[in-house]
Amino acid sequence: MVRRARMWFAGAKYHVTSRGNRKSSLFYDDEDYEKYLDLLEETRLYYPFILHSFCLMTNHIHLQLETLESPLSTIMKNLNTKYAKFFNKKYKYSGHVFEKRFGAELLNSPEYELDVSKYIHMNPVSAGMVSRPEDYPWSSYRAYLNLNDVPLIDPQPLLAYFPHPQPQHYKQYMKSRWNDKFFWENGKLYMGEKVML
After folding, report:
1. At what angle do helices 110-126 and 166-175 cross, to 10 degrees?
2. What is the DSSP secondary structure assignment for residue 65, as one 8-state letter?
3. Helix 72-91 vs helix 30-46: angle between axes, to the nearest 10 degrees?
4. Which CATH architecture has domain 13-153?
């Protein structure tokens, strides 16, 4: 059976997921996480893209990225193939490292982009690994708070949806519940009731 080609166009934004084969671990130690991030940067040099957020969990990864000139399938094939070779060589394994094809959801609105960013950054909290997203070392969340520089990440496109000071408003958004009230005004996201005068 022939697989359907994924929708792609320059400027397409995606939530990408990849899981370890049979839900097994993709990362056993810090070197593994660091290698994946190094390969992510190397891939970006060959096939430029904008990385908005990421989270590397023990047995799966989340990437929120925007393509430029290369299709997402080219980017992910390069990245996952190189990591699989590293992983199998290091641990003396053979066979598939990643379970089937990577997942890719097209992000088609600012609201969806922000929801996905929140979901990605809250993943370690939801899994009970940390109590606060800024305590997890293998995500881009700290870059959004200006707590450390992550060269891979460009948080500004998503932070631009918030009024100043943007990092504090993003953090407030991260702490919000899914049913909290938000409203958009002049292309910015505000929290709370909009007062009609």
Report:
1. 60
2. E
3. 150
4. 2-Layer Sandwich (3.30)
| Nearest Cα to Cα of residue 56 among 150, 170, 188 | 150
71: nearest Cα among 55, 49, 54: 49
- Provide CB contacts within 8 A for 117, sequence distance 6+: 52, 53, 64, 158
What are the tokens at 124?
């370690």
Do 102 and 6 meet the contact criterion of CB atoms below 8 Å apart? no
- Closest to 45 measured CA to CA, from 62, 69, 9, 61: 69
**Torsion-angle region of residue 92: left (phi > 0), alpha (psi -120 to 50) or beta?**
left
The pLDDT, as a whole number, for residue 180 is: 64
Kindly list the averaged pLDDT for each block of 10 residues, start to end, along the chain of length 197: 60 96 94 98 96 97 96 96 97 92 93 95 96 96 85 91 92 78 72 49
| Coil/strand/helix, residue 110 | helix
Alpha-carbon torsion, ordered 112, 46, 31, 126, to 10 deg: 10
Residue with tokens 């997921």: 17
